[in-house]
Automatic annotation (TrEMBL), chain A:
GO cellular component: chloroplast stroma; glutamyl-tRNA(Gln) amidotransferase complex; mitochondrion
Gene Ontology MF terms in the entry: ATP binding; glutaminyl-tRNA synthase (glutamine-hydrolyzing) activity; hydrolase activity, acting on carbon-nitrogen (but not peptide) bonds, in linear amides
Annotated catalytic residues: 134, 209, 233
Principal subcellular localisation of the protein: mitochondrion
Subcellular locations according to the entry: Mitochondrion; Plastid, Chloroplast stroma
Protein name according to UniProt: Glutamyl-tRNA(Gln) amidotransferase subunit A, chloroplastic/mitochondrial
Enzyme Commission numbers on file: 6.3.5.7
Length: 551, 578
């Protein structure tokens, strides 16, 4: 099997899989126990014919499990896998520009892995999996700029916790991906270094701020990637690029090593080409971290082992699941192509047995302004450390105040400056009560509304963005239009809930059809339910192939 | 610019980048400093070992919000002579109102939000990590000891402990503040509404006082700027940053404006120092900056309700400096009132200059600084269980004021009470000597006298010597019952302080037991009288003073061991009897 075939996976490849060989690590990563069941179930073609699901050859499979299979069966070496990805990465990079930096060590690390395979040493659950890292996550052996000039060439002395966990699980860090400067933006056009293209249509934005991480997975430049989500920065680009994007509950994944944008909203999450892959990643990167006081002590469930194999599915696998479609997200003003894709998805969920009802979140429209006040307020504080004193770029000046001024005005981009100014304003004496405090009150209302809605429903669904990917440059001069694009996602951050975006359909653009993502929202720390529904949805959605045809 | 990883860069530049300079707080020893990524004068760069780093000098370093430098000088200095003439009549007409904000550096092993050691005096920038340097992506995690210490001090000050408090960010730009904000507590401090009770020194009039404590809150310290070429910013060509202190935990204790004199303020600070030392939460050392007092002083006409314009004074590194600074400031303000120049009292921060013994303007405050406080999102609320507070409460030692009241009740004079209760270790030692059965007054006298002198001489604390409370009690008893003389007792004490052991064993080993047998003494007297017939003759002819001479001879002959009372009795009998 060539890695190229993975672009539109052939169903038959699964039948080749031998059962996984378990090792000592299996206790640390119990999700692997069930993994081969999926493969087997698939090949046994036992899906009940009553399920109105076509057994399309396009059904997404787990790239991570495939790599593991290849390594363990000696079908491929880690070096071969890495070379495959690297050559594809380089070839497509000229068009996509999703990476700010490509690792020089990936092949050496792959060689090490091959030695371990040869020695039959235990392999981590992500052994040989090449992954991209959003450049606002600190990495020890690669520069970490946050997409900002002020940190150009900056090399942190440590790995972010999520990166460390990925490496410990055997994954190969393949490079740092492009983003809007410090995560501030929705199109990745605010990067100080380059503009990333959408692999579905190079004239379109990949979304943002984790645009590089979404585009590189969509373009199959790597298997999966890490991103961060403050107001939709994983989910909106996942939707634009047709990949699966997972935003965990606030506190599920350590933020240590994530360059803070808005500390109370920021979460680290991941991208993959299947729900299974994001579930495996989530399990690896989750957990309490003594370096992040806001990380949760809650036990990390074995997310991937909770995902059912298709073979074991009942007639109505989502029977009894109460799903609320958020009314305010499918109203006028939302792209009609997006709305119809979401309705179709809802129909499909109904076919799978779920009970779909419309839910109204009265505070829905309040979230966006509240979000921008809170996020900017926190950002104005979090970005104060970029002062040119200890690290990063310093602009020369004759005195301290001018040095601060020059370094920051030359180092930060326009959008970052705009947000620092707005945040500083909102926190200033005399304005605090009218802005920051009021926004906190709105946040509480949004949280309560979600809580109530999630009492009546097990999950909520909505689009991940009001439109599909738009053209590069289309909104760069209209910040408010850009902010409005975050309408579907910011409330989830305000409430700290987990959300999953799964590709569900397409809109017809001017030429190229563009993917649309369906957002599942669950109660805090109820990722399992969301992943299960997303997985079943994805595996049964039918004849849709979410691989960009341009590639 | 292409940068090395930060930690690596620091290691690389460490040996070459030491500079000898005096610390801001006039520390006695020269402090080598690391130029981190530094601010410096262009003229120095060519010769500087830091040439790979940028530069910039700090001619307008005073960038804290709402603040600017001023050339304004103390007014009173020029008018000192003139104003002192009328001061005697002016001063009684005015009343000073004094409030104090004290920063107490906690003696935790590690910093408030990271695991760096927090000890004082380490090589510059050696106790730092990505977290206290404020590197991108780093997060604070609260050291539980800080909460423990805060609760202890809160309880000791009789304050209300807030079971649910939170941290906030206090934001301003300064070169010693790595994150651009200080993690502090703003509207919900960990403790509030307490008070402190103290006894003024007897020699200065005495009296008991109770001052209100507004609040106690937890926060982190900033780093330290060291200005090249001296200890002041002005005139310094460049400054260096030492981040060892950045992130060291502090408790800020804010008093009510209850003090009226420099003495009261100094005694307030001394009592607070005593308290934190009793609690073992800080060494309270003002010279090292472990305890720093910012004093707000205003004056008003006696009987006035309204406060005058307050002036903040900083940079006092002893209690006596505090007292002098405040008294100077009161005089300055009162004399301005006396000259009808009250409007020249402006809201400002003034520095105490030890050299010239006066306060000078450091910076004027233009309205209130806007620190844009908001809740620290990286830290969850500080939620304390009541059981934890109860546990802390029961673990509190006897506090200075309780101790003083107890000693007073036992019948000690207030002067003795203040000396004995001043130091926690001394008072503990004293208590243990009493427990071992020693007489109250004798124990107090030995401790305040010979032992205190010895400790002072040897620059030791009572914990450093080998004398045990039991041995001292035994020694006191042996003197009391005549086993040894007081003079021998002093010698034995020195042995005990140096070597330890029991008083009895030393007395026995050295054969120092007092000679109290009348027959032995009589024989010794006979011998001395026989050896000095001339003096005996003179005595008998009326020169009674010679009794002292015989006594001296007897003491000498016995090596000081002869019981003086018995000796004198027998000597007189022999001299007068014949």
């Amino acid at each position: 099997m060539s890695m190229g075939s993975s672009l539109c996976p052939a169903f038959s490849t699964f039948t080749k899989h031998s059962p996984l060989v378990f090792n000592r690590n299996v206790h640390a990563y119990p999700f692997l126990r069930n993994c081969n069941c999926i493969a087997r179930g698939y090949s046994q073609k036992t899906v009940d014919s009553n399920v109105s699901v076509s057994e399309a050859p396009t059904r997404p499979h787990s790239e991570i499990l495939r790599i593991r299979e290849s390594l363990l069966s000696r079908e491929k070496t880690a070096v071969e896998i890495a070379e495959d990805y690297l050559s594809r990465l380089k070839e497509r990079e000229t068009k996509i520009k999703s990476f700010l930096y490509v690792s020089e060590h990936a092949l050496q690390e792959a060689e090490q892995l091959d030695k371990m395979v040869a020695a039959k040493s235990p392999l981590g659950p992500l052994a040989g999996v090449p992954f991209g890292i959003k450049d606002n996550l600190c990495t020890l052996d690669m520069p970490s700029t946050g997409g900002s000039k002020i940190l150009e060439g900056y090399r942190p002395p440590f790995d972010a916790t999520c990166v460390r966990k990925m490496k410990e699980a055997g994954a190969l860090a393949i490079g740092k991906t492009n983003l809007d400067e410090f995560g501030m933006g929705s199109s990745t056009e605010n990067s100080a270094f380059q503009v990333t293209s959408n692999p579905w249509d190079l004239s379109k934005v990949p979304g943002g701020s984790s645009g590089g991480s979404a585009a590189c997975v969509a373009a199959r430049q790597c298997t999966c990637s890490l991103g961060s989500d403050t107001g939709g920065s994983i989910r909106q680009p996942a939707s634009f690029c047709g990949v699966v994007g997972l935003k965990p509950s606030y506190g599920r994944v350590s933020r240590y090593g994530l360059m803070a944008f808005a500390s109370s909203l920021d979460v680290v999450g991941c991208f993959g080409t299947s729900v299974m892959d994001t579930a495996i990643l989530l399990e690896v990167i989750s957990g309490q971290d003594s370096l992040d006081a806001t990380s949760s002590l809650l036990q990390v469930p074995s997310y991937s082992s909770l995902l059912p194999s298709i073979g074991s599915l009942e007639t109505k696998p989502l029977d009894g699941l109460r799903i609320g479609l958020i009314k305010e997200t499918v109203v006028d003003g939302v792209d009609s192509g997006v709305v119809s894709a979401i309705f179709k998805a809802a129909d499909h969920l109904q076919v799978l047995g779920a009970k779909i009802q419309e839910v109204s979140l009265l505070s829905f429209s309040l979230g966006l302004p509240a979000y921008y006040i809170l996020a900017c307020s926190e950002a104005s504080s979090n970005l104060a450390r970029y002062d040119g004193i200890r690290y990063g770029n310093r602009a020369p000046a004759d005195d301290l105040v001018s040095m601060y001024g020059n370094s920051r005005s030359q180092g930060f981009g326009q959008e970052v400056k705009r947000r620092i100014l707005m945040g500083t304003y909102a926190l200033s004496a005399g304005y605090y009560d009218a802005f920051y405090k009021k926004a906190q009150q709105v946040r509480t209302i949004v949280q309560t509304d979600f809580k109530n809605a999630l009492k009546d429903c097990d999950l909520l669904i909505s689009p991940a963005a009001p439109t599909a990917a738009y053209s590069i440059g289309e909104k760069t001069n209209d910040p408010l239009a850009m902010y409005a694009g975050d309408l579907m996602t910011v409330n989830v951050n305000l409430a700290g809930l987990p959300a999953l975006v799964v590709p569900c359909g397409f809109t017809a653009g001017e030429g190229q059809k563009l993917p649309v993502g369906l957002q599942f929202i669950a109660a805090a720390f109820d990722e399992e339910r969301m992943l299960r529904a997303g997985h079943i949805f994805e595996q049964t959605i039918g004849d849709l192939c979410f691989v960009p045809p341009l590639l | 610019m292409g940068e090395l990883p930060l930690c690596q860069r620091m290691l690389l530049s460490l040996p070459s980048s030491f500079r000898v300079s005096h610390s801001y707080w006039r520390s006695q020893r020269p402090l080598p400093l690391l130029s981190l990524h530094l601010l410096r004068n262009p003229s120095l760069t060519s010769a500087s070992p830091f040439s790979l780093l940028g530069y910039c000098h700090l001619s307008s370093l005073n960038a804290a919000p709402g603040v600017r430098r001023s050339k304004f000088r103390a007014h009173v200095a020029t008018d000192e002579v003139r104003s002192t003439v009328s001061m005697d009549t002016l001063l009684p007409q005015f009343e000073a109102v004094i409030g104090i904000e004290t920063h107490v550096q906690l003696s935790t092993d590690t910093k408030a939000f990271c695991s760096c050691p927090s000890q004082y005096g380490a090589e510059p920038n050696s106790n730092i990590c990505p977290i206290c340097m404020g590197l991108p992506g780093c997060l604070p995690v609260l050291n539980a000891k800080v909460v423990e210490y805060a609760v202890k001090l809160g309880l000791a000050l009789g304050a209300k402990i807030n079971l649910d408090s939170k941290f906030d960010r206090k934001q301003y730009f300064y070169a010693d503040l790595p994150k651009g904000y200080q993690i502090s507590q703003f509207d919900i401090p960990i403790a509030s509404n307490g008070s402190i009770e103290l006894d003024l020194p007897v020699e200065l009039g005495g009296g008991h006082r109770r001052f209100g404590i507004t609040r106690i809150h937890m926060e982190e310290d900033a780093g330290k700027l060291v200005h090249a070429g001296g200890d002041r910013l002005s005139g310094s060509p460049y400054s260096q940053v030492d981040l060892n202190r950045a992130g060291v935990p502090l408790l800020e204790v804010v008093s009510e404006p209850d003090m009226r004199t420099g003495l009261e303020a100094a005694e307030y600070a001394a009592e607070l120092q005593r308290l934190v030392r009793y609690l073992g939460i800080s060494n309270g050392n003002m010279q090292e900056g472990s305890m720093r007092c910012d004093v707000n002083v205003s004056v008003r006409k006696k009987g006035d309700e309204k406060f005058g314009t307050k002036v903040e004074i900083k940079n006092m590194n002893s209690f006596s400096a505090m007292q002098r600074a405040i008294d100077f400031e009161i005089s300055r303000q009162v004399s301005l009132h006396g000259e009808g120049q009250a409007s020249k009292i402006v809201q400002e921060t003034r520095l105490w200059e030890e050299g010239s013994q006066r306060t000078i303007t450091m910076r004027l405050k233009e309205g209130l600084a806007d620190y844009r406080y908001f809740p620290e999102p990286d830290l969850p609320n500080v939620v304390i269980e009541k059981a934890f507070v109860d546990e802390m409460c029961s673990s509190l030692p006897e506090l200075p004021n309780e101790k003083r009241r107890r000693y007073e009740g036992m019948g000690l004079s207030m002067q003795d009470v203040l000396i004995l209760a001043n130091d926690y270790d001394i008072s503990r030692f004293f208590d243990e000597v009493l427990t071992a059965g020693a007489d109250l007054k004798l124990a107090a006298n030995w401790i305040m006298g010979d032992i205190a002198a010895y400790l002072k001489n040897e620059k030791m604390t009572v914990n450093d010597v080998n004398l045990t409370p039991e041995a001292l009690a035994e020694l006191i008893l042996m003197i009391q019952n005549g086993t040894i003389s007081g003079k021998i007792g002093k010698e034995v004490l020195v042995d005990l302080l140096r070597e330890g052991g029991s008083a009895k064993s030393i007395v026995e080993a050295k054969g120092l037991l007092q000679i109290s047998d009348p027959l032995t003494i009589a024989a010794m007297v006979d011998k001395v009288l026989a050896e000095n017939p001339k003096q005996v003759e003179e005595y008998k002819s009326g020169k009674k003073k010679l009794q002292g001479f015989f006594g001296g001879q007897l003491m000498k002959a016995s090596g000081g061991k002869i019981n003086p009372t018995l000796m004198n009795k027998i000597l007189l009998e022999k001299l007068n009897g014949n």
